[in-house]
Structures are given as structure tokens and as C-alpha cells.
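Fold it.
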Amino acid sequence: MERVTKSLTTEQALADRRWFVADAEGQVLGRLATRIAAALRGKNNPAFTPHVDCGDFVIVVNAAAVKLTGKKHSDKLYHRHSGYPGGITTQSAGEILKDTPEELIRKAVVGMLPRNRLGRQQATKLKIYAGPEHPHTAQVPQPLQA
């Protein structure tokens, strides 16, 4: 007698996208970023497939109130290069948090996603706002669980 078991297909997982909202106020940056990256990849989805984008949308509010532990405000440095000789620019995490807190969270989360076209596609589902307001109330987002 042959057993037949049904399994979820990736097409069903794609049709079942959810929206989550994460409040960054008072949360440690790295711990928050790992939860967000897992939700973007779809690791909490029972039909998770590593090579398919089956993740959910994540909205981050109060990005300006995220916490950095230790001396990361001054010691953690982010470098970028313009491509020209002498075109390297260095900013500390504290400067980025003060100027554009959305970018600090985006850099932390994108660094935890795959470095290929799938990871770039998953990163587009991340919406970050410095304050408590966001324009995605029509999607009825649920709170992101720890």
C-alpha cells in the first residue's frame, strides 16, 4: 500500500503574504534586525523554501529610538566609496542614527539577507519610518512576534 502525503507548494506560500509591524523603540538593533530578516525571508512560514521569496512584509516604526549597546555609537563605523580616488566616506553608527535612522536599520537587516537577487527582492518588502506613523494601515499589520 502506497502512502500519499500532500505538501504545501511554493505557489500557495506566495499567495499568503502577511504584514507585520515592529516597534523599534527601546529595542537593541541587532536583535530586532534578526527578527525582521527572518520574517522577510519567510522562515516563520510552514512552507518556507530557501530559493523562493515566500516572506512577509515588515513595517518598522520609531526607528529613531532604536538602541545601540556598548560603545557602538562611536566605535561602529560604516564605510562607502564613491569609486573615485580618495572617495571613501566613513560615518559612525551614532551619526547615521542621528541623521537617517532608517538607513541604520536597513543596513543591519540587509546584511542578514542573502547576497543575490532573491535577497534584493526580499529587501524591497521592508518599510522603515523614523516616527510612529506609517501609511500602511489599510494592510492591517499584526505585531511582529519575538
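The longest helix spans residues 29-41.
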